[in-house]
Amino acid sequence: MDGETRCVHFGTELDVVALRFGCCAEYYCCLSCHRTLADHGAEPWPADRRTEPAVLCGVCGTTMTASEYISAGTCPNCASAFNPGCAKHYDRYFEWIDGTEP
């Protein structure tokens, strides 16, 4: 991981978020990083915790809820753009998302 949460799996200029997992409440750059680094299986962020921070901007360190992240497209604090392609994988990270784009 670099200083703005880009990893070896996804390292474009727009891949600057870390996602919090329901199984451990820890932030990882992506599901593949969790699989590599954690000693347990990954679980998406649970629906009953949707009001808690689940996404971290790697540029400025701002945390946001999944809903804030999904609806923003950019960091609400520093305006860094997020990768729009990540929308295809929201269901892997957030329990209440069904896999369709918002």
How do the strands and helices of this protein lay out in sequence?
Elements: E1 17-20, E2 27-28, H1 31-37, E3 55-57, E4 63-64, H2 66-72, H3 90-93
Antiparallel strand pairs: 1-2, 1-3, 3-4
Q: How does this structure look, described?
A:
The protein is of the alpha+beta class and 102 residues long. Helix content is 18%, strand content 11%. The protein is built from 3 helices and 4 strands; from the N terminus they run E-E-H-E-E-H-H. The protein has helices at residues 31-37, 66-72, 90-93, and strands at 17-20, 27-28, 55-57, 63-64. Strands 2-1-3-4 form a 4-stranded antiparallel sheet. Strand 1 and strand 2 (27-28) form a beta hairpin.
Strand order of the largest sheet: 2-1-3-4
Beta-strand percentage range:
5-15%
Helical content (DSSP H or I, runs of 4+): 10-25%
Please state the overall shape, judged from the principal axes of the Cα atoms.
globular
The major beta sheet can be summarized as: 4 strands, antiparallel
User: What kind of assembly state do the chains in view correspond to?
Assistant: single chain
Q: What is the straight-line distance between the termini?
A: 28 Å
* Continuous helix count: 3
Structural class: alpha+beta
Radius of gyration: 12 Å
The total of beta strands comes to 4
Given as residue ranges, the uncertain stretches (5+ residues, pLDDT < 50) are: none
Q: What's the order of the H and E elements?
A: EEHEEHH
**What's the mean pLDDT score?**
89
